[in-house]
Amino acid sequence: MQPSESDAVRAVRRLWVSFEARAWEAARAVLADTFVCEWPQTGERFRGRDNYLAMNRAHPAPNWHIAITRLVGDPTTAAAEVVVTSDNAVDICLAFYRVRAGLIEDAVEYWTEPGVKQTPRWRAEFTEQAVDTPRP
Known about the structure:
Nuclear Transport Factor 2, Chain: A, six-stranded mixed beta sheet
């Protein structure tokens, strides 16, 4: 824990550290009973902390590990950038959280797989390939 972290940042850090440790009860303890997580890129909603935790526990990627690359917030909101590596892939999550009384009430998580998609032709002339992504 960083000395100047807000309650929201502390709660989100505890969640991701618990995931990395496979400490599912510790993760459950930081989520509100009514927790809801949205994944806009696929249109999915995980209603209830138990559904969210069960989905994370069931993920089939072998040997996955989590690195928090950025975590910022204020007393009631936090944003995290997280890199999840496994034997098969690298995924990046950018997530936004609302926290009240030390419990995460809801989240919106955007997941990407770097390098999976090509730059569309319409914008190719304006961009370059970022070879340093992801950041550990």
